[in-house]
TrEMBL record:
Family statement drawn from the similarity comment of this UniProt entry: Belongs to the bacterial solute-binding protein 8 family.
Origin superkingdom: Bacteria
Alphabetical UniProt keywords: Signal
Native organism: Glycomyces albidus
PANTHER family, alphabetized: IRON(III) DICITRATE-BINDING PROTEIN (PTHR30535:SF7), VITAMIN B12-BINDING PROTEIN (PTHR30535)
TM helices/strands, residue ranges: none
Signal sequence range: 1-20
Protein's UniProt name: ABC transporter substrate-binding protein
């Protein structure tokens, strides 16, 4: 196998006393000098972000981040939404987002487009959205403009190989502190945890099917062997046929493979993420044409996720775990 990089798709001084956060070892500090606004300092992707007062002008740098901000009740603080063409917002949120300015559609916003809406806080799924070489605003440029930039914990470069579904809970706790909405964040976290607990209870003691998660682009077949996607399979009760101990995934969570490698693994179930209906059909056609004798294909045991379900920092990570579990154990989810 040859590895092939694919995308699925504010430094400031620390203040106050550090409070340990769950998840990726994030530290948060709250403090207030006499007569000064409360500041919150968070360690995010190895950087310290200080937010002086509750942000008033927020941009979600992907629909998944915009969705989370909306579900936290922050619609009146969002001044921009980005990459809107990459994933639709759910119907119940579309009306809330209708009047929010769109700063980009198919890619992260340019530095100029982002700064034009004058944000004081931006929330991104990965650090890619801050790549200056691509014309995006870098962390340093945003800090110079007085903008705090937060990356979803699971999208931090040092977490991409080891990220888990639980990274979402770190983000919820951090956002609750930053926006002074700890109760709302805790409520979303409790709902998400209840879904994970329900899945775990339903599949307890059942025999684990073998699972491969793949991504198909044209005639290129990529396997997923680490990161949040790997953890989703495990949380859903699947036995991953590819994993981080395999040499192909030693340094990157995905690797291009030959169809013969997937045929040799012969998974009971195949999971893949699709960008849209056309991509889903193209992937199904590729599997049927190239790997008709693989058990998952022959028995039509294929679970399809939305591409946005695997974005770091997405509530859809939780929905994806349940969707995968339903595909692996349909009997366990019959009401």
């Amino acid at each position: 196998m040859n590895t092939r990089p694919i995308r699925f798709a504010a430094a400031a001084a620390a203040v106050g006393t550090a409070i340990a956060l769950s998840g990726c070892g994030s530290d948060v500090a709250d403090s207030a000098d006499a007569g000064a606004d409360t500041a919150v300092t968070i360690e995010n992707c190895g950087r310290e972000i200080t937010v002086d007062g509750v942000p008033e002008a927020v941009v979600g740098l992907s629909p998944t981040q915009t969705e989370l901000l909306l579900r936290l009740g922050l619609a009146d603080r969002i001044v921009g939404q980005a990459q809107t063409a990459t994933a639709p917002l759910s119907e119940d949120l579309a009306a809330l987002a209708a009047d929010i300015p769109v700063v980009s559609e198919d890619a992260p916003p340019s530095r100029e487009a982002l700064l034009d809406v004058e944000p004081d806080f931006v929330y991104s799924p990965t650090d890619y959205e801050f790549t200056a070489e691509q014309g995006f605003a870098s962390h340093e440029q945003l800090a110079d403009a007085g903008v705090a930039a937060y990356t979803a914990t699971g999208g931090c470069p040092d977490r991409r190989m080891e990220g888990t579904v639980d990274d979402l809970f770190t983000d919820l706790e951090n956002l609750g502190l930053i926006f002074d909405i700890e109760d709302e964040a805790a409520a979303l976290a409790a709902e998400a945890q209840a879904t994970l607990d329900d899945v775990e209870a339903r599949i307890e003691g059942l025999e684990k099917p073998t699972v491969a998660q793949v991504y198909v682009e044209g005639d290129a077949l990529t396997a997923i062997g680490a990161g949040i996607e790997y953890d989703m399979i495990a949380r859903a009760g699947g036995e991953n046929v590819f994993g981080p101990d395999d040499p192909e995934f030693a340094s990157f969570f995905a690797a291009q493979i030959n169809p013969e490698a997937l045929a040799a693994a012969d998974p009971d179930v195949i999971v893949f993420a699709a960008a849209d209906a056309a991509h889903e059909q193209a992937t199904r056609d590729y599997l049927a044409r190239t790997l008709p004798e693989v058990s998952a294909v022959a028995n039509d045991r294929i679970v399809v996720l939305s591409g946005s379900d695997v974005y770091p920092g997405s509530l859809s990570n939780i929905d994806a775990v349940r969707a995968i579990a339903e595909g692996l154990y349909p009997e366990a989810f019959q009401e």
